[in-house]
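Good day; I would like, with your permission, to put a structural problem before you. The record follows directly beneath this note:
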Amino acid sequence: MSIFQTSDAAANAFSESTHSAAENSPADWRQSKWLAVAELIVVALIFYADFKHHILFSKTPYLLLFGWLSLRARKLRWRDVGLKRFRNWKISVALGLAAGLLLEGFELFVSQPLLVKYLHKKPDLEIFRQLNGNLKITLLFVALAWALAAFGEEMVYRGYLMNRVADLLNRTRTAWVISLIVVHLGFGLAHAYQGWTGIIDEGLMGFLLGIIYLRTGRNLSVPILAHGIGDTIDFILIFFGKYPGM
């Protein structure tokens, strides 16, 4: 079964309806590929500003706001790119929990150890060392992880950017493959503070979350829950001093 096969009929209906306008009215600026190119240039500039330390705290809120403005300009909502339950809440939560535990196990016991073995360097997680034994800071970071990483990053990278890159190539199967790769190269680089081991590992985790997004019919609820659960486990392990390499 292809990872790009939609299991949600509503997602297919949305894709057909929102892009029929482009076929019937090629002059509509909202469907213009040039608009998509311009938006991706702005996104690249936000990344550059963050790299140069011109953005305080996190670039995610800026990217999230820009993604929302893009959707509003094109008369779309976050729901239209997947911010809704998958089938029902029981299934969404069950799949999110299972995916989060599987991804976390894969990262802790497979991908990260292999990267450390071949790159001879652990991910730089020094910024999180302050969580060790500090309950208040840990709870704060868990809250931020759900707000900025789980919701924020999933809405930005999977919901907004994957769709926008796919728009450039007419949302074909090849377009989604390219989008999956390109966006998660950027997702990995967004974690440059962790060094090359962290960049590759986080890029891989984002890639797998992107596959989950596609396999659930471009639905965000499952990857949001999976992402949040994985980060929560990480912070709990750091709090107790049990995170590998820390």
User: Anything to note?
Assistant: The helical segments are 9-24, 33-51, 60-73, 89-119, 135-168, 173-189, 195-215, 221-239. Residues 166 and 174 are 9 Å apart (CA to CA). The chain has one domain: 9-239.
